[in-house]
Here is the input.
Amino acid sequence: MGKNYVFADDLSPQDIEADVASQKLRLRRAAGTTPLAVADKVLVRQGTYLVEVPASEFDELPPYTVADAGKKLAVNDAGNALEWKGVTPLLAQLAPVLENTIFKPPAAPNAGDSYIVAPVATGAWLGHEDKIATWDGLAWAFYTPACNDVTTVQTGANAGSVYKWDCTLAVPAWAETVETLLPSTVEAIVFSSGSTIESEGGGVFIHKGDVYGWGKLGLGLNGATLKNSIRSIVPSKYDMAGNLTTYSPVFIDVWYNPQNIFALDDKGFVWAAGKNTTRQLGDATQAAAVDLTCLTLIPFFKNGNIKVKIIVIPVGASGSMPVAAITESGDLYLWGNNANGQLGQGDTTDVITPKLINFGGVKVKSVQFASVQGYSTYVLLEDGTLKVSGRNENGQLGLGNTYQLTTFIQSNTGVKQVVAGTLTALIVKTAGTVHGCGSNGYGQLGQGNTSQQTSWVPLKKGLSTFATGIDKVFLNAGKQAECAFLLTDSRKILVAGHNAHYQLGINNVIQRNFYVEPTIVQAPFQGLVQDAVLTGNLTGTNYVLTTTGEVWSAGSNNHGQRGLGHTTAATGSNGLGMWRKANYPKPVLAIRGMGLDNSTYAAGSIYALDVEGGIYTHGYRELVATDGVVNSEVYSPMLAPTPYRFRSG
Here is the structure.
């Protein structure tokens, strides 16, 4: 291909950092590896891009030696350094396409199917030659390629070939290329888009189509009897021995809480295991007293050929819970616990099999159960209407009263996001304002007081100004949702609520009953916030993930859960009362929290997935081996103790 590439993996272990004084990138490589040659170019992954960096841009540090064991550079900040150097992307890797030789839409596409439209396009593809057409379940969406976009063709005459949108041609076009692509190191792992981590230190994830779990699992592995005391000290694959279906599923997503697990396969069908106290397994043939120790297909969706997109479950249910499924076509099905009318059926009788909920033909965008047990339900429709049902003792349904509901009624309009604690709820409006209702015991509703609110009220920044320009909200899972963060359009956070453990990161323990913006000194990541995890009420530790892959923490550190390498408590004078960066060796892609409600086991710890497919944790871990319970604390991010690395490369 005319270029001599050195992949970052070939240099492992290695670190790259920026030297501002010399304006060079500095690279440290393993002892015994070949130094960079003048003609070499290094390909480094930066987000979804491959960035080509000439060897001349690097100053090499001395190779690692035995004497360097345990040492590491202050940061591994290759992404930031490359942006600072102004290096432009060489290749942008897109998702694969099925084919690139057909010019008319297939008769029966599956949601997510993509094609490069060939000339001369007809039907729904007319006028979209060379674009990437993707079927979203209802219609075709078209992507116009940009210079250096690359994709792989999976089937047809050109199966396995790589194509690049070549802007150097007189007329830009897709051209087959022999460019070597940096292997993807994370596509084989999917952190659950639901509640991956439960209250006493367990987790689940997908690896190459299988479901793995570790820690306190709440259900059996490898055919073991379902007991809460069963734990796995390393990630282990979930047993499928009891699977009586005629095909072996390839799982693509998973949702989990202390008592149940739900998994989605690539056909859009739902599998479940665990407790069945309130018929949450969704199978009329399974008795309420019978729990499932093996992931088992829920027959309702397969029999009706109903393809599910997402499952929603409460994060901390103790055996009785509702379940929601949103299909690829935007329909909503509910089943399970209905003791508080949260399924909107007009009664409080549990629902044995999934039941379609009709909202006058309007499709469903998202569903939120009141976080811990799911006693209330919030349904956001595609048109921005918010429907609610269930418990309402604190006015958390936003209806101006405290009456329980057993049918869905409209609570608000113009909504783009809803989050719900057990007794508190917040919504972001399409106009960028944020409103809240329900419990306000710690001032989390931002009213300048701690009074309960039974109607939706706009949240305040400061004593008199309403918060605007809000993109997203975060609420912790404690019984009263004691603190909340608002994420602005400019990627900054505003904070309010409980602050006894310095968990707001503003260098004092003053409870805030209106929203404040941590300063750049208190929170150096302001302007770069991507995600946040707010852990349970007794743990008092919160986390922020930046767009550059850094993890920052504030609050309690009694078990090393802040990932700083020690257990020093925060004070207003030692700098730990502000946000501090955790010691992750690689950029992080996703974080999930442990420590719900009143749990003391997980102590506000988190799990994180890094750019190489590694799963890290820090804080308090409860492990059980054959010889009894082993409690341990990890003060810096530690790679999950597995006999293999979770990566596809």
Observations:
- The radius of gyration is 25 Å.
- The mean pLDDT is 75.
